[in-house]
Amino acid sequence: MNKRILIRSGFLFGALCCIPPMNGQGVDSLLQKPRRNVQIINEPIHPALAPLPTLKQFSVSGYYRFVANYRHLSESYAHLTQPNNLFIGDDSQLPQLLLNLGGSVARNTSFGTDLFMWTPMTGAGAAEGVKGLNLGVNLHGTYAGDIGTFTVHTGGINWYSLSPFTFQTNKGYNRFSLFERNPWDPNTATLEARYKTYYQAGSINQDQRWGQQAFHGMIVEAMELPRGFSGVFMYGKTQLNGGLSPIPNHSVGGRVSKQHDYGFVALNTFNTNALTDSLSNNRYGMNIGTLEFRQQLGSFLFKGELGMGRTFDNTARQPWGEALSLKVEKAFGKKLVAEWHMYRISPKVVNNSAIFINSTYSEPVRTGGNSATQPVLPAVASAMTPIGQLVNNRQGADLNLQWDLGWLKAGFGWSMSGELERISNRITYGHPINSLALSHMWRWDFPAEVGPYRNLSKIYRSVYETLFLNEVNPTDGKPLNDKYFNSTELHLRAQTHLGNKALYTNYLGQFSSAQYFMAPLTVFSERALLRTYYHQLESYLVLGKTFIWCNYIGVERNIANYATKSDAVSRRPKNQTSLAVATGCDLRLSRGAGLYIRQRWMKGYDTSYTQDRYRGFETSMELKIFF
Q1: What's the confidence (pLDDT) of residue 162?
Q2: Which residues in the chain come in under a pLDDT of 70?
Q3: Across the strands, what pairs with 223?
Q4: Can you give the pLDDT at residue 599?
Q5: Cys-Cys link to 104, which of 56, 286, 363, 578 (CB 3.0-4.6 A)?
């Protein structure tokens, strides 16, 4: 036998022999099972020495985003004293580094939080290094029982939706440009996937916020109840009554739904109560209740919501108004899908957590504690909006078609609407061609009535302009005539090849008018108070798995007639032209990293309002890494 084996065996035998005897059995007790008469005593463990409970699951994910923007203007608005501007950071107020932390402490209980770091780089030095919670700590718990599944969401900000008229955001009909990236746009599995999906489906993948509102508080869901019932209860704050103010502004909502074989029917409600002072002497709020349904009848799909809403303050409760929406959808074979939409929203229905825009009631910003709270967004006057975006104090009808022609896919929209009451002597409209670049001229804030003629207002990553009407009642300033609106939209998406490279091309045309008379189609003559024409053409050439060449051309025309306010010098109404030519590229750096570069040359001018002009270029670069 090997000497090493003998030596090791000797050490092992010696170690065993040195072990004290156990119950008089010596070494044998270690090699045999305990006898039945051996009594094992389990002494209690002191709480301080007990092992801590561990997480069942824990994950970390997120993204890093770097944005740089350089602008040069040879002609600009008066407030821009420097022709050159270099901006590092993101003025959309989204974090540069976001960490999503999540885990579970039990099978049916989980939690999540979002930690962010953000450097605005405004020149304030070390004080501007912002870091902390982005959406707050959220706790999610689920219990699955015999009578249903119950889920509780509490803590920070949750993205949620009830119904279009109660608590939801507008999704529209996916007629938008892909050229300018949004801060929340993801990196797709492949560079081409973003444009291929848009070509095939007319839409792109969105994050969890798409179509949903932010809610801070508690949400209780009861799903899979007997007989197809389900329910939701919400209590907390929305973005309009949240903030850091200690004043107990709050919102309450809920839903009871009954599912059946061909759809569902649901009762929804949403209510806000905003106190504007710490003594609770002044308050403002709204109530809305709706009946929502979805029903499949043969080849027809019916979707609708019928409800009533009102506002109240500390002096009186306003009368109830109606909110009605009915959609009928039908597929004609596999190539054509049509949707007919009819709606009517009373000016008495005001809900800034719903899909429609407030155009009737303007409430000034409230200040409470160390936070400004705005219970009602300021009215945007008589807005000219894309098809699908609803406005209160209006009734109308839409027709939307999606047609698959093989390599060419077409979308068509038609809209006709009119106001219910004569309230506003203004018309508002957007500037989609250079809207993002124009919004960059006012960083951080959202000012109203700016620009050389104080008729521009900035909203999130966009601007809109206000046009005043001449024919008004001298007593109350309201218009003397009813206003009507028409819009026509054409959306074409094509996939072809240039050589052996895939080429995606999109065209979006929008033609709208506002006038004092009802018309079946967009009015293209000077009888219209305002005519807006937008053309956007873009192409994406896939040169490889890691490189896509992007191009864009945009033309915009806004023409008003003499029933609107004219310039004091030229004595002519608005006559605006905006142009944009842009190019850029998408680069795939790795599986989770992408680099996106855009170069835009832009020009805008008004032949009547001579100070309304700009010319220059803007270069932007975005590096986004997901992990």
Answers
A1: 95
A2: 1-53, 91-93, 120-129, 205-208, 241-246, 276-281, 361-379
A3: 149
A4: 98
A5: 56
Q: Side by side, which strands form the sheet with 382-383?
A: 382-383, 426-430, 462-468, 456-459
- pTM (predicted TM-score): 0.84
Is the residue at 178 inside a domain? yes
Evaluate whether 133 touches 117 at the Cβ level (below 8 Å): no
pLDDT one-digit tens code per residue, 285-319 = 899 999 999 999 999 999 999 999 999 887 778 89
Q: Supply the pLDDT for residue 255.
A: 97
Phi, psi (deg, nearest 5) at residue 479: -65, 155
d(CA 523, CA 562): 16
Locate 564 and state its tokens: 């609107």
pLDDT digits 0-9 by tens, 462-474: 899 999 999 999 8
pLDDT of residue 375: 43
The Cα 356–Cα 170 span in angstroms is 7
User: Could you tell me if residue 14 is inside a domain?
Assistant: no
CATH of the domain at 434: 2.40.170
d(CA 367, CA 187): 40
Cα 288 from Cα 270, distance rounded (Å): 6
Per the structure, how many domains does the chain have? 1
Whether residue 311 is contained in a domain is answered as yes
Provide the pLDDT for residue 43: 54
CA dist 172 and 492 (Å) reads: 16
Residue with structure tokens 């899908």? Answer: 337
In a domain, 8, yes or no: no
Q: How far apart are CA 351 and CA 289, in angstroms?
A: 11
CA 117-120-126 angle, 5° bins: 80
Determine the structural domain holding residue 486 and report its residue range. Answer: 63-123+135-626
Residue 120 carries which DSSP code?
-
| C-alpha distance from residue 346 to each of 479, 486, 579 (Å) | 18, 19, 38
| C-alpha to C-alpha distance for 259 and 185, rounded to whole angstroms | 34
- Given a contact cutoff of 8 angstroms between Cβ atoms, the answer to whether 440 and 517 are in contact is no
With left for phi above 0 and alpha for psi between -120 and 50, is residue 333 left, alpha or beta?
Answer: left
3-state SS of 424-440 is CCEEEEECCCCHHHHHC
